[in-house]
Design brief:
Number of helices of chain A: 5
Helix content of chain A: 40-55%
Order of helices and strands of chain B: EHEHEHEHEH
Distance between the termini of chain A: 49 Å
Oligomer: heterodimer
CATH class of chain B: Alpha Beta
Order of helices and strands of chain A: EEHHEHEEHEEHEE
Number of domains of chain B: 1
CATH topology of chain B: Rossmann fold
Number of strands of chain B: 5
Number of strands of chain A: 9
Number of domains of chain A: 2
CATH superfamily of the largest domain in chain A: Histidine kinase-like ATPase, C-terminal domain
Structural class of chain A: alpha+beta
CATH superfamily of chain B: Response regulator
Distance between the termini of chain B: 14 Å
Largest sheet of chain A: 5 strands, mixed
Structural class of chain B: alpha/beta
Number of helices of chain B: 5
Strand order of the largest sheet of chain B: 2-1-3-4-5
CATH topology of the largest domain in chain A: Heat Shock Protein 90
Shape of chain B: globular
């Protein structure tokens, strides 16, 4: 395909083939083919902008519905009976759920359009892990799960956006709690490996089958979701976590065995001193 | 005497809800539905605190704040921004501009009241 304005195209390396010289007078050659992804990139951009603006518009009516419900539950306009409180509590839970979905959509559209900004500063990773784990202690106890952490040192300095890395930890611990049953165990581990810090969240939960692992960090992918009551995710948590870690120039990966448990890892570069 | 709070937001339903909440906590509430009205009410009523939306017609929240900061009489009134814009884009900017803080929509009403009380020194 010939195009005049090739500088304006967005091209992605597609295939590379090396031809070795078979006879002495022949020269070796490499053929690289590039895929024109200009159109696809533009559509992706439009989609991200669309998601961002729709999500933003959804927040205003949601704020009003949330406050209206809260006012009634807090009995500000007048007393309510127990049955009314039950119904409104269900409404509140679902308002929070919707709010989480909207925030996740905004996060993912910002990550994909490169608009998510990091506010990096020196952070003690051990401290961040301790604090995040302690925030989940109550929830874990309620589910009869033993949640603890293991850090090699009390002070492991890295340069990162503390709020966003906390969000990754929260996503991973929350998932582990969701897929681990009573009497199970969850452990958050922090290790140093050369120039990077490796954090993992290990559980004794239901695990992930081998065929599902490659798609695990994709958007809107949910495995092991059970019908009926219980915590419902957005299918975006792992995609967001991956995006945040990669923005920090780190990696995410998982090791898992069906019915044995999973261990989700992420690495972050250490402070360059 | 009850402390006065100016609520400026272009969504009348939200102003209504927020006013109910604030009145239940013993505050007097004045409402404004656009930037211009917010500035006018601030000069006229000299509230103890302003809860200010950002995206509003006739002058957004930033313009309102800049206007109020120019007046010696009312520049000391604390302002808390309440907006659906992402905290990552707004939080730092509003503090630099001299506001007391930022509350993200949809907000938790208990948290909002706690912030209001803190800023009012209660």
């Amino acid at each position: 395909m010939e195009k005049d304005n090739i500088e304006e195209l967005i091209l992605q390396p597609d295939l590379a083939r090396v031809f070795f010289a078979e006879e002495e007078e022949e020269e070796a050659s490499i053929v690289v083919s590039l895929k024109d992804i200009t159109e696809r990139t533009k559509i992706e951009q439009m989609k991200n902008e669309f998601i961002a603006s729709v999500s933003h518009e959804l927040k205003t009516p949601l704020t009003i519905i949330k406050e209206a419900t809260d006012l009634v539950v807090d009995e500000i306009p007048g007393k309510i009976v127990e049955g009314q409180r039950d119904i409104l509590t269900t409404a509140q839970e679902n308002i929070d759920r919707l709010s989480n979905i909207i925030n996740s959509l905004l996060d993912i559209s910002r990550i994909e359009s490169g608009k998510l900004k990091l506010y990096t500063k020196p952070v003690n990773m051990s401290e961040l892990i301790k604090n995040t784990v302690s925030d989940f202690k109550y929830l874990a106890e309620q589910k009869g799960i033993l949640l603890d952490y293991k850090v090699t040192q009390d002070k492991v300095d890295i340069s990162c956006d503390a709020d966003k890395i906390r969000q990754v930890l929260v996503n991973l611990i929350f998932n582990a709690l969701k897929f681990t049953s009573q009497d199970g165990r969850i452990k958050v581990i922090c290790n140093e490996n050369g120039n990077e810090v490796i954090v993992s969240v290990q559980d004794t939960g239901i695990g992930i089958s081998e065929e599902n692992i490659p798609r695990l960090f994709d958007r809107f992918i949910q495995f092991g979701r059970e019908p009926g009551p219980g915590e419902k995710g957005t299918g975006l948590g792992l995609a967001i976590s991956k995006g945040i870690v990669e923005l920090h120039k780190g990696r995410v990966w998982v090791e898992s065995k069906l019915n044995k448990g999973s261990e989700f890892y992420f690495s972050l570069p250490k402070l360059s001193s | 005497m009850a402390k006065k709070i100016l609520v400026a937001d272009d969504e009348p339903d939200l102003v209504k809800m927020l006013s109910m909440r604030l009145r239940a906590h013993g505050y007097e509430v004045i409402a404004a539905f656009d930037g211009l009205q917010a500035v006018k009410e601030a000069y006229k009523e000299k509230p103890d605190l302003i809860l200010l939306d950002i995206k509003m017609p006739a002058g957004d929240g930033y313009t309102v704040l800049e206007n109020l900061k120019r007046s010696v009489q009312i520049r000391s009134i604390p302002i808390i921004f309440v907006s659906a814009l992402p905290p990552s884009e707004v939080e730092e900017k509003v503090v630099q501009l001299g506001a007391q803080g930022f509350i993200s929509k949809p907000f938790d009403s208990k948290e909002l009241i706690a912030r209001v009380k803190k800023v009012l020194g209660e």
